[in-house]
Amino acid sequence: MKRSAFVTRIWFCAFALLFSLIDLIAVSPVSGQNYKRAFISPRAGMTHSTVLPAAGELHFFIGHRFGEIGSGIYEMFGLDLANIRLGFDYGFNDIFAAGFGRSSYGKTYDLFGKVAFLRQADDGSPLSLTGTGGWSVNTLRDVYAPGNDGISERSSFFLQLALSRKQGAFSAQLSPMIFHNDLEIRINEALTVYAIPVTASMKFTRRMAFTVQYIPVFPQPSFFVHNPFSVGLDIDTGGHQFQLLFSNSTGLYEKAVLTDTDGDWLKGRVYFGFNLVRVFYLK
């Protein structure tokens, strides 16, 4: 068995183990509990938050990341250049959600599942805790060498545990992650990195919040440039959720965020982007 195929099976087993916990959680007080939402959206900054779509909610996700703001008027300050991701997230019940999407960057398809282990409540847990596991596959042609261009080599995986607390208008989240790429073509071998995204949010109206996120990545591969750093404005209008973002990363899924960030705040290489979520109520 090829090493990459073996690693792929190990990661799939990890996902299966994570989601097998759903049956145990479904009978716990987490399900059906009134809880405090630390963030406006199921995504905070460039990563997943501890918030899940409610049971029966379908979220249509549209993500845009434009070019460098400093590119000038000729590129309309980056608006002429864009990566886009379209996706759907669905809340199957109070504690489990899943989603899929397709990004123009790398012509990448992705899947994820998300489980709530704890939820912050006045009469319950002081913290929220979720687990998220995901898979993505790059489908670009003529990039991978013949013999190393199967789905296993093109696949990437991540696991994230997100721990958050809301205190008044302030929310904070710590979400350690492990990421594995079966074949990183820039070094011609498998790549595993770790990250600890740190996110803080301050609500200044009932439906608006200012969010900051820093993602240290380690060990840093030889081609790595800078850790992702983002600031944003989150807006909830009821049926829509908007996130306006400024970041040194144009990533719309975990691999792009953790391994392809090439901007530099100190040199003015900053990108504008937004997430738009349209919420449909199916129950």
Topology:
Layout: H1 3-20, H2 22-25, E1 43-44, E2 47-48, E3 57-68, E4 82-91, E5 96-103, E6 108-118, E7 128-138, H3 151-154, E8 155-167, E9 170-174, E10 177-184, E11 189-195, E12 198-205, E13 208-214, E14 217-218, E15 229-236, E16 240-247, H4 254-259, E17 271-281
Antiparallel strand pairs: 1-2, 3-4, 3-17, 4-5, 5-6, 6-7, 7-8, 8-9, 8-10, 9-12, 10-11, 11-14, 12-13, 13-15, 15-16, 16-17
Structure write-up:
The protein is mostly beta strands and 283 residues long. Helix content is 11%, strand content 47%. It has a single domain (3-281), classed as Porin, CATH 2.40.160.40. The chain is built from 4 helices and 17 strands. The strands form 2 sheets. It has a 12-stranded antiparallel beta barrel with strand order 3-4-5-6-7-8-9-12-13-15-16-17. Strand 5 (96-103) and strand 6 form a beta hairpin. The radius of gyration is 19 Å and the shape is globular. The relative contact order is 0.19. The mean pLDDT is 88.
In short:
The protein is built from four helices and 17 strands. The protein starts with a helix and ends with a strand. The model has no long low-confidence stretch (mean pLDDT 88).
Residue runs with pLDDT of under 50 for 5 or more positions: none
Structural class of the secondary elements? mainly beta
Estimated helix fraction: 10-25%
Radius of gyration over C-alpha positions, nearest whole angstrom: 19 Å
CATH topology (level 3) name: Porin
Strand content: over 45%
Q: Let me know the average pLDDT.
A: 88
Major sheet details? 12 strands, antiparallel, barrel
Describe the oligomeric state of these chains in a short phrase. Answer: single chain
> What's the arrangement of strands in the largest beta sheet?
3-4-5-6-7-8-9-12-13-15-16-17
Coarse morphology:
globular
Number of helices: 4
What's the CATH superfamily, by name?
A: monomeric porin ompg
**Which CATH first-tier class would you pick?**
Mainly Beta
